[in-house]
């Protein structure tokens, strides 16, 4: 059974979809890109998704426009990518409850699960490796599990950022929640650049298809 917060988010999303699909949507694709991590713990391996969002915001020229939205307990920024619009989201909830923020934002912007990108750390890939996975299970990632539960879907594309798995199982938690070493930090700039390139290339390719979506400006927090 899904937690109460997730059930409420799923009901919000269902109501929004039933209303918005009745209205014509202007041309231009819209996407939600959520960076998963633990707020207040930047620089840790588990929060590398937030680091990618920060790099993405700088690349798109919206790093100074983050605004807190209490409706979804997250920081939001909206950017243009050619003819597409991107909603960047940094949940203010802990990783295990981040799906509530993602689902609420999807409802606010009238987006389906297929239009929501998740950016998160991946234990089973070495540091420096980046992969884009189209849907599927959470593979043990609590943030992805929360998003699947609250969106009631496995369809979200995920940008998986390798952080490497330690040799000893007993050290996994400390590894995930720990900060990058000095040697690893030297690799981060290239890693963030590669992850951003892969994400933007994929969004550009999908945005070439026929599109539906509401005007984002009316949903921005005051």
Automatic annotation (TrEMBL):
Metal-binding found in the keyword field: no
Domain of life where this protein originates: Eukaryota
EC number annotated for this UniProt entry: 3.1.1.29
One term of GO molecular function: tRNA binding
Swiss-Prot/TrEMBL keywords: Hydrolase, RNA-binding, tRNA-binding
Catalyzed reaction equations: an N-acyl-L-alpha-aminoacyl-tRNA + H2O = an N-acyl-L-amino acid + a tRNA + H(+)
InterPro entries in UniProt: Pept_tRNA_hydro, Pept_tRNA_hydro_CS, Pept_tRNA_hydro_sf
Keyword tRNA-binding in record: yes
Family assignment from sequence similarity: Belongs to the PTH family.
Function as written in the Swiss-Prot or TrEMBL entry: Peptidyl-tRNA hydrolase that cleaves nascent chains-tRNAs that are not stably fixed in the P-site of 60S ribosome-nascent chain complexes. Acts downstream of the ribosome-associated quality control (RQC) pathway to release non-ubiquitinated nascent chains from 60S and 80S ribosome-nascent chain complexes. Does not act on ubiquitinated nascent chains, which are cleaved by ANKZF1 for degradation.
Name by which UniProt lists this protein: peptidyl-tRNA hydrolase
């Amino acid at each position: 059974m899904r937690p109460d917060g997730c059930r409420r988010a799923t009901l919000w999303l269902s109501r929004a979809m039933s209303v918005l699909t009745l209205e014509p949507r202007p041309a231009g694709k819209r996407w939600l890109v959520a960076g998963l991590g633990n707020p207040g713990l930047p620089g840790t391996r588990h929060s590398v998704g937030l680091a990618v969002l920060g790099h993405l915001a700088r690349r798109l020229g919206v790093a100074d426009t983050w605004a807190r939205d209490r409706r979804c307990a997250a920081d939001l920024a909206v950017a243009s990518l050619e003819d597409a619009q991107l909603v960047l989201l940094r949940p203010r909830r802990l990783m295990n409850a981040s799906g509530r923020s993602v689902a609420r934002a999807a409802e606010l912007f009238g987006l389906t699960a297929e239009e929501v990108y998740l950016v998160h750390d991946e234990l089973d890939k070495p540091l420096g490796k980046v992969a884009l996975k189209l849907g599927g299970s959470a593979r043990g990632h609590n943030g992805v599990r929360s998003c699947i539960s609250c969106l009631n879907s496995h369809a979200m594309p995920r940008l998986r950022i390798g952080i490497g798995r330690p040799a000893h199982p007993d050290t996994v938690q400390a590894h995930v929640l720990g900060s990058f070493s000095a040697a690893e930090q030297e690799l981060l700039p290239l890693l963030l650049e590669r992850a951003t390139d892969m994400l933007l290339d994929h969004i550009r390719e999908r945005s070439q298809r026929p599109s539906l979506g509401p005007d984002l400006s009316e949903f921005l927090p005051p």
